[in-house]
């Protein structure tokens, strides 16, 4: 695992800042859901980490057989992270890679998460 991924997984924002300031990028990753720092920060609801990674050019819509960041945040009910991702141009209709065949709206609706469903619909999520 890359140092950036490990720092992100543990929520060490200071370490993430140091690594990113030195130009450390994530190394090529295996195809599993925890390998990408942005997805990891979204999964754990680490809004500050998500913002930091976005500020350093993280690709918000990079799925590549992984659930995307928006799907992860929606799955775990992290409303503030969902809002942040949407504000930064997350694809509201992207499906979660081969691992998760559903989009964020389907996942949030299945969880009964009214607030996230409302956010996604306001951003134009497809109800079909």
From TrEMBL:
The keyword rRNA-binding does not apply. The keyword Repeat applies. Keywords: ANK repeat, Repeat. ANK repeats lie at residues 1-24, 65-97, 100-128. SMART domains: ANK. SUPFAM superfamilies: Ankyrin repeat. It holds the Pfam family Ank_2. It comes from the Eukaryota. PANTHER family: ANKYRIN REPEAT DOMAIN-CONTAINING PROTEIN 29-LIKE, ANKYRIN REPEAT DOMAIN-CONTAINING PROTEIN 39-RELATED. This is Ankyrin. It comes from Parathielavia hyrcaniae.
């Amino acid at each position: 695992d890359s140092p950036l991924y490990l720092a992100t997984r543990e929520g060490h924002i200071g370490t993430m800042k140091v690594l990113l300031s030195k130009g450390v990028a994530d190394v090529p990753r295996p195809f599993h859901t925890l390998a990408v720092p942005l997805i990891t920060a979204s999964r754990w609801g680490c809004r500050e980490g998500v913002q930091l990674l976005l500020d350093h050019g993280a690709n918000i819509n990079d799925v590549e057989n992984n659930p995307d960041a928006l799907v992860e945040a929606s799955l775990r009910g992290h409303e503030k992270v969902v809002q942040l991702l949407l504000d930064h141009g997350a694809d509201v209709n992207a499906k979660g890679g081969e691992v998760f065949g559903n989009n964020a709206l389907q996942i949030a609706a299945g969880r009964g998460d009214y607030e996230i469903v409302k956010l996604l619909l306001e951003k134009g999520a497809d109800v079909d």
